[in-house]
Amino acid sequence: MNRTEIEPRIEILGPVRATIRGREVDLGPPKQRAVLALLALRAGGHVPLDDLVVVLWPGQPPTRAASLVHTYVARLRHALEPDTPRRRRTNVIASVQGGYRLAVGDDQLDLFTFRAGIREAAARREAGEADSAFARYGETLEQWRDPQLGDLAALLVEPDDIGPLRQEFLVAALDYIGLGLELDRPDSVLPLTERLAQTEPLNERVQARVLQALTRIGQRAWAIERYADVRMRLKLDLGVDPGPELTAAYREVLDAEAAPPPPGPGRGGVQQPPWRGPAPVVDELIGRSADLAAVCDLLGEFRMVSLTGPAGVGKSALGLAAAEELRERFADGVVVVDLASVRTGPELTRTTAAVVEEPESWHAGASMPLAHRLHDRKLLLILDNAELVTDDAADLVDDVLRGCPQVTVLLASRELLGLPYEAVYPVRPLGVEADRGPSAAPALQLFARRAAQVQPGFRLTDANLEAVTSVCRALDGLPLAIELAAACLRTQRLDALVDVVEDPLRRIQPPRRGLPSHHRSLHAAVNRSIELLGPAERRCFKALGAVPAEFGLETAAVAGRAVAGGPETLRVLLDRLVDKSVLEVMHGSSGRRYRMLGTVHALARQLLHEHGVDAGPPAGRCGCGCGCGCHAGR
């Protein structure tokens, strides 16, 4: 094999990058990096030109696709062999019949180094050198910086090669964890086990290892809670019960000596009350200290608090942060019920009961009302993403609060329950304008923090402040939209992102995992709000796509002639849109006005363009079209 005089090192087990003598090489735009990524995935093998074209242009490739690939290869050759004459730059990327081959040594590609390290660790284990094998496994696994291969997936749009590669890491990691448990080193493998559990929530073998590791370091209670969470997810997502391996691991938990748990992560080393359901927020909230204090104060005064606001404003994150702050006040802990995929009353009851129930009582009192199960408990019940089952959630909360004097309920929803004792806290977008410098603008701080996760070293500077402000302003200061936009910097430049946010619903779609489906794209988040609307409300919403994002009743009346029976009916419909966090109402010297966030207004315009506005109800009928004279709109 010919080798360059200065050998580059190529890495794909994290961000796709190349270095020469420790200095990073500029690999060019995303499609050019994608060429190197696919060649590295199949290093040493023949990669046909057709395969490269399909990966770069999954739909209809341009007529000059082959020529563009040749250009990308030529530029990569120059980057990887800068000191080699132009026509001799074939030592790293070699030309073969109908395609190319990446020709690198074992020490030039991190994938090769990883595989060699795992083979060596397995050989040591086979030879009976368990301690040495464990150390070698640990050293090698540290080289794999992203188990989900997010950069590769973004560049290659999930080709057939990526799934097996992820599985390769998973198998090696499980071998390492298994060996660590055999050597009675659960504390050493627990961090990796927890990391795997986040990316493989339905993998029973991974979850079984979590239970074993927790049990063997004395955290038996936490292991029981983890099993409850996993069992619920298997039931709700796959409709199955735990299999033999996970069941056996749980039996090991139950059979373990019920000794007092060691000091946990609570304040002062005191074990905190239990937490069931989706975990507390991992990262600190930015720009929400005042909101957090206000919500905590409300929860100290009222037993029913609702966080409401538009799509992507951060209601869930704020609610979970408040629950973590107040966790010690509730002896029986915190119960978080995610209702994102729930659509009916029976589903709501089953989902809530599945989180609330103690693991030992799954098969006892299956028909017992929730209020009876909680009547003597002191806990904080969080109902998250409840907007699609508002009526049923109101009934459930009313029953629980009337029958359970020590239960407090925190709701995170785009629509209020409408209960007489409901305390409301509207969650607003983050501030954008940096009047007192970048540190005074929470939206900019959030963008910078998320940008640094995909573009190491990113900081707010005088040079990029205007562009970042422009992006955050275009996205209304919505945390979800800002996070999604910042994630795009993995493959785009900041100056290009300024143009992308002009059409955020279609163009901001970075890969996202481990989140509810309506948080994986901005379009999905905003479109969920439209699911809340009844027929008349939906027609009104579409009609508003023809008016500015901020408008008065008179302007709305002009656009909404086809959907409303008169000014009063229109006002009722607009108020219902306010109740469902689609509109914001403002009162000023010029009277009552309405405002729609830019992202929501973009969807209204899109729906208006695609479908137009349906004909309104006949004269003399109500605004909801039912003919009863009501203004229900649902």
UniProtKB/TrEMBL annotation:
<feature type="domain" description="OmpR/PhoB-type">
    <location>
        <begin position="1"/>
        <end position="104"/>
    </location>
</feature>
<dbReference type="InterPro" id="IPR016032">
    <property type="entry name" value="Sig_transdc_resp-reg_C-effctor"/>
</dbReference>
<dbReference type="GO" id="GO:0003677">
    <property type="term" value="F:DNA binding"/>
</dbReference>
<dbReference type="InterPro" id="IPR005158">
    <property type="entry name" value="BTAD"/>
</dbReference>
<dbReference type="InterPro" id="IPR001867">
    <property type="entry name" value="OmpR/PhoB-type_DNA-bd"/>
</dbReference>
<dbReference type="GO" id="GO:0000160">
    <property type="term" value="P:phosphorelay signal transduction system"/>
</dbReference>
<dbReference type="InterPro" id="IPR027417">
    <property type="entry name" value="P-loop_NTPase"/>
</dbReference>
<feature type="DNA-binding region" description="OmpR/PhoB-type">
    <location>
        <begin position="1"/>
        <end position="104"/>
    </location>
</feature>
<feature type="region of interest" description="Disordered">
    <location>
        <begin position="256"/>
        <end position="278"/>
    </location>
</feature>
<protein>
    <submittedName>
        <fullName>Transcriptional regulator</fullName>
    </submittedName>
</protein>
<dbReference type="InterPro" id="IPR036388">
    <property type="entry name" value="WH-like_DNA-bd_sf"/>
</dbReference>
<keyword id="KW-0238">DNA-binding</keyword>
<dbReference type="Pfam" id="PF00486">
    <property type="entry name" value="Trans_reg_C"/>
</dbReference>
<dbReference type="InterPro" id="IPR011990">
    <property type="entry name" value="TPR-like_helical_dom_sf"/>
</dbReference>
<dbReference type="GO" id="GO:0006355">
    <property type="term" value="P:regulation of DNA-templated transcription"/>
</dbReference>
<comment type="similarity">
    <text>Belongs to the AfsR/DnrI/RedD regulatory family.</text>
</comment>
<dbReference type="Pfam" id="PF03704">
    <property type="entry name" value="BTAD"/>
</dbReference>
